[in-house]
Design brief:
The protein has about 500 residues and is an alpha/beta fold. About 30% of the residues lie in helices and about 25% in strands. The protein has three domains: about 150 residues, 3-Layer(aba) Sandwich (Rossmann fold); about 140 residues, Rossmann fold (3-Layer(aba) Sandwich), CATH 3.40.50.12780; about 100 residues, GMP Synthetase, Chain A, domain 3 (2-Layer Sandwich). The strands form six sheets. A nine-stranded mixed beta sheet has the order 2-1-10-9-11-12-13-14-15. Strands 4-3-5-6 form a four-stranded parallel beta sheet. Strands 16-17-18-19 form a four-stranded antiparallel beta sheet, with no helix packed on it. The structure holds methylmalonyl-coenzyme A and adenosine monophosphate. The site of methylmalonyl-coenzyme A has 22 residues, from helix 8 and strand 13.
Length: about 500
C-alpha cells in the first residue's frame, strides 16, 4: 500500500473537478492537473536519486505546487518533512542534522541558509527552490518530467512523514508517522464528519502541520473535494469565500477573529454545514457567541502530531462546549492515575491513547519513545483530562510544560535555553499569559546576573528573533529579583501565571 494510492482513488473520476482554487492569485487546478503535477514531482525526485524512505524536507509558502510536492514525495516512496516557514536558521540546522534529508525545497530567500547548513553536515542534500505557484527551480525541474508515474509500494508501517515537535527537554523530536497512520485517521474523519459529494473546504491553515496538511487535506483529497486555498488566514478575505464553502477548519483564533467582524452573520455562513475547531482549547464564550451569531454549533475535536485526531464531538449528536467529544472509532482513550490505573468517570488524570492513529515513535530516539508509552502500549499524551458519564472527553490541563499560542506549540524550555545564554541573564522562566487573540502568549521572567545592571531588552529581543521562530519570541517580559520556587527548588510557573499572566497585567 501507499497512502497516495488511497488519497487519489477518486481523482480519475473527478479529473475535471476543481481540486485547488486560490482566490488570492486566481489559480485553479483540477484533480486531473493535481494528479499530473504530483507525478511530475515523483519523477523528478526519482530521477534525482530519491529512494524509498529518503527524507524530503520542504520549507515553503503555502501554494498548490507545495501540495503537489507532498503528494509526489508520497508517490515516490519518500518521507515528507514539512517545516514551518517561521523557523530560523538555527532551528533548521537542527532538523537537517537530525533528519538528514536528501532533498530540500525552500524559498529562494532561504537558499543561502540551507546551503550554509549543507556545508556543515555530512549527508548534504540537493537544494531546490519554490517561490509560489510555478516559480522556482523545483517547478522548472518538474516541467519536463512525464505526467505518469507508477506509485512506489510501501508497507503500512513505512514512514510517510516526519514532523518535528519540541519537548520538555527543549530538544525537538521527529514524530514518525506511517502511511497507515494517516490513511486510517483520514478515513475515520471522512466518515465521522459525514463528508459528502459536493463538499467544499475553506482551507486557510498552514500546510506544514498536522491540522492543515493531514486533517484538512486528507479529508478533502479522499473525497475529491474542492479546496479554497488561502496562503494564510485573514478573516475579511476568508469571509468573501464563506458562501462558497460547506466545511471550515480552523484554530480557535480563526473563530474569535471571525466574530470580531461585523459582517460575520448567519446569512454569510448559511451554506457552511460544518465549522470544526482544534489545535488549542476553544473557549466556551467563543462557542456560545458563535452559535448566537450564526445559529451554527462549532464542532471541537482533539489531536496531536504524534497521534493525529483522537476524539471529536459528534456530527449528529450534541456538541458540548468545553469538551472534545468522544474517542474516534478505533481509538481507545483512557484517563489514569500516576501508576497508569484507569480512573472513573469525571476523575482528572493522565490522558492516554492507543490505536492505529498512534505514531511509530520518535526518529532516532528509542529511549524517548519508550518513555512516552506505557507497558500496555498506550501513548502518554501529556494532557490532563477527564471523561464524563456520557463519554465526553475534556482536556482540563497539561502535565507537560507547553504553551499553545494561536494553535502553535511553544515549549518553554526551548525559549529559556536561548534566554539563559544572553549576556547578564542569570536565569529565566517562560510561561503563558492570557492573550486576547492567540489564547495564550509567551511571557518570560528574567533574573539578571548583576542586579545593578538591567538586561538590555533590545538585545534580548534581537537574540530571540534571530534564534527562534517569531511565534516563540516572548511578547511580555517581567524582570524579577528571583523566581518563585517550591521546597524542592522547582520554579512555580503557576505563581508566575497568577501574578504576571493576566490579560490586563501592565509592567
Ligand atoms: C503569528 N505570530 C504569532 C502567531 N502567528 N505569534 C504567536 N502565536 C501565533 N500563532 C506572530 C508572527 O511571528 C509575527 O510577529 C506576527 O504575529 C504577525 O505574523 P502573521 O503571520 O501575519 O500572523 P497572523 O496572520 O496573525 O497569524 C495568526 C494565525 C496563525 C492565523 C492564528 O498563527 C495560524 O494560522 N495559526 C494556525 C497554526 C496551526 O495550524 N496549528 C496546528 C498545529 P512579528 O510581528 O513580531 O514578526 S497541528 C496541532 O496543533 C494538532 C495536531 C491539532 O490538534 O491540530
Ligand atoms: P501538537 O504538538 O501541535 O500536535 O499539539 C498537540 C496538543 O495540542 C495536544 O496535546 C493538546 O494539548 C493541544 N490540543 C489540540 N487540540 C486541542 C483541543 N481541542 N483542546 C485543547 N487542547 C488541544
Amino acid at each position: 500500500m501507499n497512502l497516495y494510492q488511497a488519497l487519489s482513488e477518486k481523482f480519475s473520476d473527478a479529473e475535471d473537478r476543481v481540486a485547488i482554487r486560490m482566490p488570492e492569485t486566481g489559480l485553479l487546478w483540477t484533480y486531473g492537473q493535481l494528479a499530473k503535477r504530483s507525478a511530475q514531482y515523483a519523477n523528478l525526485l526519482t530521477k534525482q536519486g530519491i529512494t524509498p524512505g529518503d527524507r524530503v524536507a520542504v520549507q515553503v509558502d503555502k501554494c498548490a505546487e507545495a501540495l503537489a510536492i507532498y503528494l509526489g514525495v508520497l508517490q515516490a516512496g519518500g518521507t515528507y518533512l514539512p517545516m514551518n516557514t517561521a523557523y530560523t536558521k538555527s532551528e533548521l540546522k537542527y532538523f537537517v542534522e537530525n533528519a538528514e534529508p536528501s532533498f530540500v525545497v525552500c524559498s529562494s530567500s532561504q537558499k543561502a541558509n540551507f546551503s550554509d547548513i549543507n556545508d556543515q553536515v555530512v549527508n548534504a542534500a540537493q537544494i531546490y527552490t519554490l517561490d509560489g505557484d510555478s516559480l522556482g527551480s523545483v517547478c522548472e525541474g518538474a516541467d519536463s518530467m512525464s505526467t505518469a508515474f507508477e506509485t512506489v509500494a510501501r508497507s503500512e508501517n513505512d514512514l510517510a512523514a516526519i514532523l518535528y515537535t519540541s519537548g520538555t527537554t527543549g530538544r525537538p523530536k521527529g514524530a514518525m508517522i506511517s502511511h497507515s497512520n494517516l490513511l486510517n485517521n483520514g478515513r475515520v474523519l471522512l466518515d465521522y464528519w459525514g463528508w459528502e459529494e459536493g463538499d467544499v473546504l475553506l482551507h486557510a491553515l498552514p500546510i506544514f502541520h498536522v491540522h492543515g496538511l493531514f486533517v484538512a487535506c486528507s479529508c478533502a483529497l479522499l473525497n475529491a473535494s474542492e479546496m479554497i486555498f488561502y496562503s494564510k488566514f485573514e478573516a475579511k478575505k476568508a469571509m468573501e469565500e464563506l458562501p462558497n464553502a460547506t466545511v471550515v477548519m480552523g484554530v480557535p483564533t480563526f473563530y474569535t477573529r471571525f466574530l470580531a467582524e461585523e459582517g460575520f452573520t448567519a446569512d454569510l455562513t448559511k451554506n457552511v454545514r460544518l465549522f470544526i475547531s482544534g489545535s488549542a482549547p476553544l473557549l466556551e464564550e467563543t462557542f456560545n457567541e458563535f452559535e448566537q451569531r450564526t445559529g451554527k454549533v462549532i464542532l471541537e475535536r482533539y489531536g496531536m502530531t504524534e497521534t493525529g485526531m483522537n476524539t471529536s464531538n459528534p456530527l449528529m449528536g450534541t456538541r458540548v462546549a468545553g469538551t472534545v467529544g468522544f474517542p474516534l472509532p478505533g481509538t481507545e482513550v483512557r484517563i489514569t492515575d500516576a501508576d497508569n490505573n484507569a480512573l472513573s468517570a469525571n476523575e482528572v488524570g493522565s490522558l492516554q491513547v492507543k490505536g492505529p492513529n498512534v505514531f511509530q515513535g520518535y526518529w532516532r530516539m528509542p529511549e524517548k519513545t519508550a518513555e512516552e508509552f506505557t507497558n500496555d502500549g498506550f501513548f502518554i499524551t501529556g494532557d490532563l483530562g477527564k471523561i464524563d458519564e456520557k463519554g465526553y472527553v475534556s482536556i482540563v490541563g497539561r502535565s507537560k510544560d507547553l504553551i499553545i499560542s494561536g494553535g502553535y506549540n511553544i515549549y518553554p524550555k526551548e525559549v529559556e535555553m536561548v534566554l539563559n545564554d544572553i549576556e547578564n541573564v542569570e536565569e529565566s522562566a517562560v510561561f503563558a499569559f492570557e492573550h486576547p487573540d492567540f489564547g495564550e502568549g509567551v511571557a518570560a521572567a528574567i533574573i539578571a546576573s548583576d542586579a545593578q545592571t538591567r538586561v538590555c531588552e533590545d538585545n534580548l529581543m534581537s537574540v530571540c528573533k534571530e534564534q527562534l521562530a517569531g511565534f516563540k519570541v516572548p511578547r511580555r517580559i517581567v524582570y524579577l529579583d528571583e523566581l518563585p520556587r517550591n521546597t524542592m527548588g522547582k520554579v512555580q510557573k503557576n505563581i508566575l501565571r497568577e501574578l504576571y499572566g493576566q490579560k490586563e497585567y501592565l509592567s
